[in-house]
Design goal:
Length: 288
């Protein structure tokens, strides 16, 4: 049920991204479309599932689902640049700066970010302009200098630091770099319904951290062909990770505990949230 729903959402989000970007012309447009192909679409899934739980019209919810995937894609394009993580492979394909050039990669990320906010601001996203404004505001907070960008900045600073990060510092870093967008995605449904986002905030808080621990584990134990990207980067760079602090077994145990926290947070929704429960279990069992 969960995997079929995840695949369904991925197709829906891809179709919407294709529709939104179809009119675009110019040298950056092909790179934007290229960047927004593939991926699990977990963030879009969280938007649409949280919207379903709060009886939000799917025709409205698809807009923030596409928007969060564009923000995520932009972050990956910039993260892959030589001045940041310097990766040449993403989702099994050449990264944007490798396929095109660094300037195109920077502009592609910029354009995806602004297009995401356009999607949230469009009347088709929600009939209430106050709701659209709230989505724009909270997305800006999640993606910006107190959210994802903060996490990325802390990550860059850690690479040149003489002192490895402690466990609490890693949690703070990843809460921004990975967790902020996951939280926004899970809370989008209640935000659109003008409902209480607290249960889904708690769910996403645990889910985001479990997701990152799973990433650290995959960096050590994963298969590059399945992952579609270069692995063992953290160990080669001498970076402190959940695995380096907790050990492989300890990291797996911590991730499992966090999944149980996420599942427990969904109790108010009853069986209607089973897809979100399965999503939490999926993040620590995936191979990419």
């Amino acid at each position: 049920m969960f995997r079929s729903r995840l695949d369904q959402v991925a197709s829906q989000v891809q179709a919407h991204l294709d529709m939104v970007m179809a009119p675009l012309e110019g040298p950056v447009a092909p790179a934007m479309r290229y960047t927004c192909q593939g991926g699990k679409r977990l963030r879009g899934f969280l938007v649409l599932e949280s919207a379903r739980l709060h009886d939000v019209d799917p025709a409205h919810a698809i807009w923030p689902a596409a928007a969060i995937e564009m923000i995520h894609a932009y972050s990956l394009v910039h993260d892959d640049l030589p001045c940041m993580d310097d990766d040449d492979l993403r989702r099994g394909r050449p990264t944007v700066h490798v396929k095109w050039d660094e300037g195109t990669a920077v502009l592609t990320g910029d354009a995806l970010q602004t297009l995401a906010f356009e999607c949230l601001a469009r009347p088709e996203c929600h009939p209430d302009p106050a709701v659209r404004a709230d989505l724009v505001l909270t997305m800006a907070q999640a993606a910006g200098a107190q959210g994802m960008v903060l996490g990325q900045a802390l990550d860059i600073a850690a690479e040149s630091s003489q002192t490895p990060l402690g466990l609490d510092e890693i949690i703070t870093l990843q809460d921004g770099k990975t967790g902020a967008l996951i939280r926004w995605a899970a809370m989008a449904g209640p935000l659109m319904a003008r409902d209480d986002p607290t249960p889904l905030r708690h769910y996403a808080q645990a889910l985001g951290l479990a997701f990152q621990i799973a990433d650290d584990i995959l960096d050590v134990t994963g298969n590059e062909d399945a992952a579609g990207k270069r692995l063992n980067k953290d160990a080669e760079a001498g970076k402190a990770t959940f695995v380096s602090h907790l050990g492989l077994d300890g990291a797996k145990a911590r991730a499992s505990d966090l999944v149980e926290e996420a599942v427990s947070a969904l109790q108010p929704y009853g069986p209607g949230a089973d897809n979100l429960r399965d999503a939490a279990r999926f993040v620590i069992s995936r191979d990419s």
